[in-house]
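hi!! sorry for the late reply, been swamped w classes. u asked for the two structures so here they r. pasted raw, havent cleaned anything up. first the sequence of the first protein and right below it the tokens
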Amino acid sequence: MLLTKNGSKVLLDSEKLYVGDTWDFTESISDYPASSYTVTCYLKYQTSATISIVGVADGDDHQFVKTAAVTAAYTAGKYSYQFVAVDGDGVKTTVATGIITAYDALATATDSRGYWAKRLADLQTAYTNMAGREYTEIEIAGRKVKYSRTELLSALSYAEYRAEREDRKLKGQGTKKIKVKFIETS
């Protein structure tokens, strides 16, 4: 959960958004009640157009809805968000910001593997198809590359390492590194 500038909690951080599903969430922002403010949630994915979801009053809460037909056109990934409250005089206040992930719905036909998992599969296929040849030319992510058996084994090892890290990150497990910082006290 994220705290707004004035200490109110924003629940969007606890939501799971899926591309192609209806997005429906309610925010209770005590310092910006729906009786006095209109709150808009802005979502931005990389260089895509900004998505605006205007909150509808539900008592003093704000309800935000995007239909499944609309979200189906969105891209899965990390979105930056801002909640902006506007009072009756038109004064705008950004009340909360953060980052949320929109996930692919499993019912869609997209490949949900990460970048490195896809590259690892490409390299494994290339190695299997090498079948006794010393060099092979393969296509990875639309690029033709010529590998020796040794280079391909090295690339496989690196891709396995990166795919494992990518998987751990997606599961929220982080890396195996422990970082330590020593500071001098006076």
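now the second protein. again sequence first, tokens right under
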Amino acid sequence: MVDALRKLEAKTVAENIEKTMIRQLLQHYSSRITQATFSEESVDLLLTEGLISEETLREVKSCGYTLTNNALREIYTAAHDHNKLKSFAKLLCN
């Protein structure tokens, strides 16, 4: 559907649908994401990509490199920026 809308040049509609779907997936899997342990490099990348703040970076590192609820909230907020959302998805796939 998203690809079809893009072909029809309904880019804004396609992007809004895609963002909504990705946000729903993030919310659905948030408990699994918070149980995952990330590498120091991955957590630093979250900051570099603008997905979390310096304060949240310190919090995540102090919690053994797991994403806290505050970190997830920041990531959900960043989900409005499609490029940041793609960065987070790539990071989860690695």
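hope this helps!! also noticed smth abt the second:
The chain is about 75% helix and 0% strand.
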